Amino acid sequence: MRTPPTSSVPRPLPTKPTFRSFASSSSSGSSSSSATFSNPSKAHPLRLSKRWPRLALTLLGVTIPTSYYFFPSARELAPHMYSDQPVSSTKSISTQHKLVSIPIPSSSTSKEYFTKPYRTVGSLADVEGGEIVIQHMMIKSPDIQIERPYTPINDPLADGEVRLVVKRVQGGEVGRIVHSLKEGDKVGIRGPIPTYSIYPQNYDKIIMISTGTAISPFLQLLSKLPSPAPIPSQSQSQGQGHTQAAIPSTAPKLHLIHSKPMQGREDWANSLTDSSFLPSLQDKFGDRLQVTRIDPGPVPKAALVEALNPGSQAGAEKDRILVLVCLPPMLMRPLCGNMTPNLDQGPITGILGEMGLTNEQVWKLE
Ligand SMILES: Cc1cc2nc3c(=O)[nH]c(=O)nc-3n(C[C@H](O)[C@H](O)[C@H](O)COP(=O)(O)OP(=O)(O)OC[C@H]3O[C@@H](n4cnc5c(N)ncnc54)[C@H](O)[C@@H]3O)c2cc1C
Predict the structure, then answer these.
(1) Torsion of CA 217, 221, 223, 226, to 10 degrees
(2) Are residues 249 and 116 part of one domain?
(3) What angle in degrees, to the nearest 10, is found between the helix axes of 19-38 and 45-70?
(4) What CATH number is given to the structural domain containing 347?
(5) Closest ligand 1 atom to Cα of 178
(6) Domain count of the chain?
(7) In which residues is FAD bound (predicted)?
């Protein structure tokens, strides 16, 4: 089953009582408990003990919302609600790109959103049958009412943190904010929100096509896919209790087609700066992961022919092939046609359409 990209509009999450409902229930008890304290010497011990739970609720009702405002970093990381989270590190990885790390709060609730993805109806769903969910986060401007989505490049749950690569574009507001962040600063963030859901075992081959920061969902997918061999030393030494399983025999082959940077620009995704960048992923998957680098500009048909019809196996895998495309509209259009204005997939046209691929085999990522 594929999960279509979600809207960036926050939806209410019908869960346990919120702090607000807790506070309001306790405030109803505050008047009677203050009467008890007006003359404690006259209070009957039995009556005081009966009122004790109300008093405790009142104190909690005052303390929790107060700490909520004065210590916002104590708040959960949640898809439906912004919280200010501390930035643990920032690093310029090119003249235009910054790598930003934001730890996931240690509470089980924050982690739950990474294990049980937030669905469009506002509920949490179990990940089952080997499903892997690519997720994104929303970052907001503290000054004006805008938010922008950013895709972690890593497996946040395994690493205990969200790592984002953010490009600064000319005149861009949220990019400017992220690029101004320093270690220890706080950033308004919500998430994770599902971008795309995949059952890898349903495919013989997964082809990913990207340019620039559009590689982020694929770096995340590759980070989340099981390793060919268990890597207990990495995950156990971090104490995350999240051990990646060995790749099953039904695992698909992986082929990433990613454009080189413009001449003179840093090839950050191909650097050793981060364990979720290509050299580490190539180490992780070995020859299961093929990486083709193309020149900036339209995706050449030859690269697609090579990925879709490798040598003698021509056509054999076509039914169980998935092509994930994450490109700006001007490059998406000649390759497979653009998404519709309301972000539906639209028909598969362009080179992939001419090669006979359909909406069953191609998924366009925003
Ligand atoms: C699901 C999803 C995930 C995303 N993940 C990432 C990510 O991981 N990293 C990342 O850097 N971005 C990512 N983006 C893009 C990001 O959300 C913003 O659109 C981008 O950062 C620009 O926001 P801004 O507020 O800085 O600029 P804006 O104020 O929105 O734009 C300012 C100007 O820059 C132009 N502009 C916007 N984007 C670009 C661009 N890419 N190149 C050139 N000009 C541009 C606009 O047209 C406008 O004229 C993602 C987008 C989506 C939909």
Answers:
(1) 180
(2) no
(3) 140
(4) 3.40.50.80
(5) 26
(6) 3
(7) 148-150, 165, 167, 174
Judge if 209 and 303 occupy the same domain: yes
Same domain, 334 and 234: yes
Domain that holds residue 122: 1-16+75-197
CA distances from 276 to 120, 221, 231, 279 (A): 28, 10, 15, 8
CA of 128 to the centre of ligand 1 (A): 32
Predicted TM-score (pTM) of this structure: 0.78
Give the C-alpha separation, 208 to 91, whole Å.
26
Ligand 1 pocket member 341 (CB < 6 A): no
Kindly state whether residues 146 and 248 are assigned to the same domain.
no
Are 7 and 67 in a shared domain?
no
364 CA to middle of ligand 1, Å? 17
Cα 98 to Cα 267: distance, rounded to the nearest angstrom? 13
C-beta 166 within 6 A of ligand 1: yes
